[in-house]
Amino acid sequence: LIFTCCDTGRFCARTLLGFLVKEGMLLATVGSLEERDEEQEDEGDEELRDGGVPFYVNRSGFPVDEETWERMWRHVARIHPSGEALAKEIRGATDLPKIPIPSVPTYQPTTTIPQRLEAIQKYIRELQYNHTGTQFFEIKKSRPLTALMDIAKEMTREALPIKCLEAVILGIYLTNNMPAVERFPLSFKSQFSGNHFHHIVLGVHSGGRFGALGMSRREDLMFKPLEFRTLLDLVQEFEGAYRGYWHTLRKVKIGQYVSHDPHSVEQIEWKHSILDVDKLTKEELRKELERHTRDMRLKIGKPAPPSPTKDRRNSMGSPLRGPGSPIRRISRVERRPSGDKKVLEQKSSTDMNGYQIRV
């Protein structure tokens, strides 16, 4: 991931990571950062922490503004063993290697669901894990799904390294056209050496089997093939991986199924169930996960809030609507964001004497 600047000011951040990995200069040591995966919180300070390890979030969008750019390099110089020497070496180089840009996966009609999920995970992995200490894409969990999908599109355009929460949003975007696959957020809180660590993956369910997509420093804390019979089996698989790194799994948070409509204005339900794993017996954990699985299945039958486009179309009813036609009331959840201005459609003088349709 060496950062280079083009004439438009858009930074190719994929190169600095490639350089750091090649030279063995990752921003982590075996006993500290390599075992830690950060999950960006909904709100908070500009500098976020996980397990005592700070990281920044790029809130300026793209191209990255100069203040965010310089702050990232100061942060690298502060936390990397080589300090400012590394930053100067990279920024002063004139022959930086070009990093190939991964291609968004495409499929043949005969490609099976497990093969598609493996291709998506391969694409996420090719973006590489972001070790710079600055998260490039700001993910606010409270934003509607349609806004998060816009960020996912930007991830595919920029092709920059990502962290675990960004990978979840990207995974949702890349599986939206797979109605046979249900997706849900699955996050973990673990403890090691007195510090707590947060990680999140995208759980998937199809054909009666569970799996996961994601990004992590550790190979066994992200992708899980679609082969686990129950949600309990999937959670225990992650718990075993945490034990392998001497982490104690404290909590598991599981969300509801996410809508496949990329224009949906509903919010992702991130924490439908919060389970204290270390306080539950295996049987209690099994019952709780079975209950959550039933809750997710029930949601499939419930209609999701319509997209803004459909909402607009339905609200523009005909003046000749019959008395038996129900009038659709738009709930608070379905309303368009307040930033969108309402526009009055221009009507002829004859129409002005009749009904006025508000768009």
TrEMBL record:
Catalytic residue list: C164, H199, S216
A Pfam family of this chain: Vasohibin
Superkingdom of this protein's organism: Eukaryota
A GO term from the CC aspect: cytoplasm
Biased composition (Basic and acidic residues): 331-345
GO biological process entries: regulation of angiogenesis
InterPro entries given in the database record: VASH1
Region Disordered, residue ranges: 291-359
PANTHER family: TUBULINYL-TYR CARBOXYPEPTIDASE 1, VASOHIBIN-1-LIKE ISOFORM X2
Protein name: Vasohibin 1
Organism: Astatotilapia calliptera (Eastern happy)
